[in-house]
TrEMBL record:
The keyword Cell membrane does not apply. This is Transposase. PANTHER family: LOW CALCIUM RESPONSE LOCUS PROTEIN S, TRANSPOSASE. The keyword rRNA-binding does not apply. It comes from the Bacteria. Keywords: Coiled coil. Pfam families: HTH_Tnp_1. SUPFAM superfamilies: Homeodomain-like. GO terms for biological process: DNA transposition. GO terms for molecular function: DNA binding; transposase activity. Residues 54-88 form a coiled coil. Transmembrane segments: none annotated.
Length: 93
C-alpha cells in the first residue's frame, strides 16, 4: 500500500501556480497531474480549497490552523477540569 504524503498549504499553492502555468501552455489536466505527480481528484480539490490563495495567505492559514488546534485543546482541558470540580462539589467521588 502506498504511503500518503502531506503537503503544506505553501507547497500546494506553489504546485497550483505551476499547474496554472502549464494549463496556460495548453496542457491537459491529465498531463498536468502526471507532471505534478498527483491525481486529478487531488488537483481539483486543491483548486477548490486553495485556488486564489497567495503564498503569504497559505502561511497565515497554516499558523491559524495550528493556533486553532491549540485553543481547542485548551478549551477541552478547561471543560474537563470544570466537570471534575462540579463532581467534587456535588460530593461524587
Amino acid at each position: 500500500m502506498r504511503k500518503f504524503k502531506k503537503h503544506t498549504p505553501e507547497q500546494i499553492v506553489v504546485r497550483l501556480e505551476k499547474a496554472s502555468k502549464l494549463s496556460e501552455a495548453g496542457k491537459t489536466n491529465a498531463e498536468i497531474c502526471r507532471e505534478l505527480q498527483i491525481s486529478e481528484a487531488t488537483l481539483s480539490r486543491w483548486r477548490r480549497e486553495y485556488g486564489t490563495m497567495s503564498r503569504a495567505a497559505a502561511r497565515e492559514l497554516k499558523t491559524l490552523r495550528k493556533e486553532n488546534d491549540r485553543l481547542k485543546r485548551l478549551l477541552a482541558e478547561a471543560e474537563l477540569k470544570k466537570a471534575a470540580y462540579k463532581d467534587l462539589a456535588e460530593g461524587k467521588f
